[in-house]
Design brief:
By secondary structure, the chain is an alpha/beta fold. The chain has a single domain, classed as Rossmann fold, CATH 3.40.50. Helix content is about 35%, strand content about 20%. The protein has a seven-stranded mixed beta sheet, with helices on both faces. The protein starts with 5 loop residues before the first helix and ends with a helix. The structure holds S-adenosylmethionine.
Length: about 220
């Protein structure tokens, strides 16, 4: 049985209301796919969307031809995802105890997921997600630095999970990260043989803007 978390307790817009916000932005020509574009730049064949919510990122990745699985604790969020994309794989599970048979080229946590997991479970979440990566696979996470999780703590937890920092940006459009900023997109790498992708080949040099969705991606609660 899934346990409650800070997301469900937070009394924020969930399910249809959460999804509607992005639909309205998309309808007003705002690019709401900054995270998916960032992930796709690594050219992964398979992606685990960890804390997938209503499937915003996973569905866009599937549209781009990526084999994607979405996992979330909140049945109301997953119900919207299933309704929008019934052919994709949606799993209701707690990331801190996740055990899937599949391994992925990349795991993404978009929309402050790490700030919503149960307090104290962050290490278990990173350990479980690291275990779902192929050798050389990447963990990509974007979260607000106004929250309780510092980058130093996050990097230490990632290191404990066998993941090394590869790149860090201020936005999903690869604005350069500067210390003291309010948001970070971090790319950590599992040990082993490298997987491909334009972004990976360019590594930390990637400082180019590719769109205008940073305000959208950053405000995902
Ligand atoms: C702000 S939403 C982001 C949803 C989606 N990633 C996006 O960017 O639109 C945060 C999501 O994290 C999920 N979440 C929080 N803790 C979780 C956990 N321990 N296991 C699985 N999902 C979790 C919540 O249920 C919620 O759907």
């Amino acid at each position: 049985m899934a346990r409650e978390n800070r997301w469900i307790n937070a009394d924020l817009a969930r399910a249809d209301a959460y999804d509607r916000r992005f639909q309205e932005l998309a309808a007003s020509s705002v690019d709401v796919h900054g995270e998916a574009a960032f992930v796709a730049s690594y050219e992964p064949r398979s992606v685990l969307d960890a804390g997938c919510g209503t499937g915003r990122v996973a569905i866009e990745l599937a549209r781009r031809g990526v084999d994607v699985v979405g996992v979330d604790l909140d049945s109301a969020m997953l119900e919207v995802a299933r309704h929008k994309a019934p052919d994709l794989v949606w799993v209701q599970a707690d990331l801190s105890s996740l055990r899937l048979a599949q391994r992925f080229d990349l795991v993404v946590m978009a929309g402050n997921v790490l700030l919503f997991v149960a307090p104290g479970s962050e290490a278990a979440v990173l350990e479980r997600l690291g275990d779902h990566l192929v050798p050389g696979g990447r963990l990509v996470a974007g979260f607000s630095l106004y929250g309780t999780l510092t980058l130093g703590h996050y990097d230490a937890l990632a290191s404990d999970a066998g993941l090394a920092l590869e790149a860090r940006f201020a936005t999903w459009e690869r604005a350069p990260f500067v210390h003291g900023g309010d948001y970070a997109v971090s790319v950590h790498r599992a040990g082993g043989q490298a997987t491909g992708g334009r972004a990976g080949r360019e590594g930390r040099a990637g400082g180019r803007g590719t769109g205008s969705s940073s305000s959208v991606a950053r405000s995902s609660h």
